[in-house]
Amino acid sequence: MGALAEISLANLGVLADGRCFEWEAVGSGEDLVWFEGGPGFWAHLARPDVALVADRFRCHLINAPGCGRTAPPARTSDYTASSDIDFYEAACEALGLGQVTLMGHSWGGTLAVAFAAAHPERVHRLVVIDGWCGWPLVDRAEAAEEERRGLDRLRDRSWFSDEILSHGPIEEMSEEEWVARFGRLWPVYFSEPESDLARPHVERVRRECRMNMETRHYDDDGIDVRPMLGRVRCPTLVVCGEHDFICGPAWNRPIAEGIAGAEFRVIESAGHCPQYEAPDEFRSALFGWMERTG
Hints:
Strand order of the largest sheet: 1-2-4-3-5-6-7-8
Order of helices and strands: HEEEHEHEHEHHHHEHEHH
Strand content: 15-25%
Helix content: 25-40%
Number of helices: 11
Structural class: alpha/beta
Shape: globular
CATH topology: Rossmann fold
Radius of gyration: 18 Å
CATH superfamily: Alpha/Beta hydrolase fold, catalytic domain
Low-confidence stretches: none
CATH class: Alpha Beta
Largest sheet: 8 strands, mixed
């Protein structure tokens, strides 16, 4: 029960259609909605992410459909980006939110872009952290080179092996098997996983990670954000880590280039989670951009 309480969000809400959703909010200031990655990670993993900006924002964590105590969709085929966007819009309505800042990490960054394109009237600002722009937009040679450089930085570590990068078909995995596999892989997502800043986060995600395995049916590889980017009307900041092996500059620069007026910032010496490895630089980039854009 203690472990479950640790990862449960504080509140339960009800959408207009009667579905239950799990959420909590921390901080004070203008409203912010966080989009977690995966797809399929539970939103409690982002508590340190939003704590980093809770002095400026009222930060809302909302578990996506099928995560935690949020009701799953009626059909497995309803695990789609458009269904998730409808869900988050309904959750914002249920929580009485007006215009919000969206902040999303990894797959959550992609979904935040899609939400901002679909509901421009809802979004005051958009912040994408190490987002995934979809294969149609990325330079595959550049992405492959970033992956090689990011992994080569870690190949001399005693815990590293190519085996941790491989896995069997996800369709055949239980949640426990998937979490155990990612427990070995998590350090690779950091530029310096043994550092004093990164190590506690590696240990925490290993301990707390939960995954909605039904999202294995989610066709995130087929997402094409190109038609969405031109419909984003709000000030946008795109931030990524220099050494992110999976969603580095090759994935994030096209997002910034496709959104009018967007600012692009690469944080040196950080991997997939610059908000963890370089929190002061991340805050400086975020708040400096906010001052410039109003």
